[in-house]
Amino acid sequence: LCPCLIYGAYIFLPFDAPLLPTVSARLVYTLRCATFATFPIVLGMIVSGISRLCSSALEPFGELHREVEIHRTYVSQSIHLFILYFFNMAVLATYLPQELLKLIPLLTGLFAISRLIFWMSYAIGRSFRAFGFSMTFLPLLAMLLWNLYGMFVLEPGNLLS
């Protein structure tokens, strides 16, 4: 489903990436796009804090209720996945040709939407969370494989430069 969503958005959304001739300009563009991927994480932190505040726990360091634990786990996992996603996206931006840089904001949007889907499905039940997690993890895996291909096959001479 992820390749179909990315391809459809790439073809039908009417925007293009700005002209980014240098690596530093591409990294700044990636950093700006990645800012939008933090929206589900910040929202999760807010909801986690509110649910912790509104829980009827008498001991602040005691056992957490299921609702509080869901939000806390979601925020923790999202932060870990965001770090992996961001670093892979930053490396990907250095290897993509100019005409494919439109993928950077599309992948950012996919990350944000898939984390929100994961959060909702995780709140419904633990058995439903596989769809949202796979929408986050499989594009991450594809980016990692493309980055390794770019580093070791396309430009092995520039690996450490």
Features:
Four Helix Bundle (Hemerythrin (Met), subunit A), mainly alpha, 161 residues, 74% helix, 6 helices
Number of strands: 0
- The quaternary structure here is single chain
CATH architecture: Up-down Bundle
CATH class: Mainly Alpha
Distance between the termini: 36 Å
Return the string of H and E elements.
Answer: HHHHHH
Estimate percent helicity: over 70%
CATH topology: Four Helix Bundle (Hemerythrin (Met), subunit A)
Summarize the main sheet. Answer: none
Uncertain segments are: none
Shape: elongated
What is the helix tally? Answer: 6
Strand content: under 5%
Mean pLDDT: 85
Structural class: mainly alpha
Q: Please tell me the total number of domains.
A: 1
Rg for CA atoms: 18 Å
Q: What would you say about this model in short?
A:
It is built from 6 helices and no strands. It has helices spanning about 1-10, 25-35, 40-55, 65-95, 105-125, 130-155.
Fold and architecture overview:
- With 161 residues, the chain is an all-alpha fold.
- It has a single domain (22-153), classed as Four Helix Bundle (Hemerythrin (Met), subunit A).
- 74% of the residues lie in helices and 0% in strands.
- It has 6 helices and no strands.
- It has helices spanning 2-12, 23-37, 39-54, 66-95, 103-124, 130-154.
- The protein is elongated.
- The relative contact order is 0.14.
- Keywords: Membrane, Transmembrane, Transmembrane helix.
What secondary-structure arrangement, pairings included, does this model have?
Elements: H1 2-12, H2 23-37, H3 39-54, H4 66-95, H5 103-124, H6 130-154
Helix pairs in contact: 1-5, 2-4, 2-5, 3-4, 4-5, 4-6, 5-6
